[in-house]
Amino acid sequence: MLDMDFVRGMFPAFSEPSLEGQAFFENAGGSYTCAPVIDRLTRYYKERKVQPYAPYAASQLAGAEMDEARARLAALMGVAPQDVSFGPSTTQNTYVLAQAFRQWMDPGDAIIVTNQDHEANSGPWRRLAEDGIEVREWQIDPETGHLDVEALNTLLDDRVRLVCFPHCSNVVGEINPVAKITAAAHAAGAFVCVDGVSYAPHGFPDVGALGADIYLFSAYKTYGPHQGIMVMRRNLAELLPNQGHYFNAGTPFKRFTPAGPDHAQVAACAGMADYIEDLARRHGLASNDPVGMGTAVHDLMRAHETELLQPVLDFARTRNSVRLLGPSDASERAPTVALATNVPGAALAEKLSSHGIMAGGGDFYAIRALKGMNVDPDKGVLRLSFVHYTTQEEIDKLLTALDAVL
After folding, report:
1. Which residues in the chain land under pLDDT 70?
2. How far apart are CA 77 and CA 107, in angstroms?
3. pLDDT tens profile 184-220
4. Residue 131: Cβ within 10 Å count
5. What total of structural domains would you count in the chain?
6. Residue 193 bridge partners (DSSP)
């Protein structure tokens, strides 16, 4: 079991007087930042805020910390350091990728997108239709929001170059079988781009085992700074046209970052690896195998989240005025819970705030998913999202508040 005193002690937000008494249930929009990230960012700005990779000491330390972040995160995810790149956001990273595919693909080629996605992993790809690329939509079940792999198989043929889908949706919450989907796409000769933004906060995935060609997530949702992190296999990186400066074309992790990186935030991302290792040591899971250690911490987080999530799903399922989007079994989903009612989601979130619950309401850039499930995006949903640092007491507080406002 998670040592919750230790976990919450690693997040300065929980000792911040201005946040006292407030239970945070909008983690899908961005998590609290862990202390190692804050410490590294502060140190960088105080001691290393110079151009990195020059011969003087401060510059060498700055570059070394940036390299450390890339290497340690890569090790946790089971990929090579050269496969990991940083950008200003996942949305920006996806847009740059789409431009590369636009140049590489020919008119008549096809890509597959879903209507389960956040717009960041849907909109940029759909725009390729402007250049004659066929865009095929893998549609969700209108009742459940589920993506059926058999339905994907009917869309795949030798014209498909790329399949884009989420590890889990930011409103449906169901965890999609990435390895199975990837295998089907690869069998048809297509690459895959997986949006892991809504999954990675619940434990870094073993991207190597999943087999994804591209895996995207946001550091500010995994307890870090505001950066987008992208994993791309080298064979694909070398196949696509360079989008960076021409003289950076030979460096895989620079090919898809047209602007220079935010040095301080990249360096601070090593604090996320610090935190995972701190958790592992505290719980007797430390190992010389970074992937195995990361997987063990992932499973520890998921077990805690699943236990807390089921009562929330049960509560929603028993309310006639509430429609729960996605599975009602906590083991099948992330703890990102979207509730559709006759009241606009933003109005419910405002009512919850008076009960000390910080939650969100709206469409969350998942307009296509909401429309696909016949939910009015103008009303949107109330979204309740939490991670492993959430406590049972906060869940109890949430359920009491929901009972009062619904």
Report:
1. none
2. 35
3. 999 999 999 999 999 999 999 999 999 999 999 999 9
4. 12
5. 2
6. 164, 214
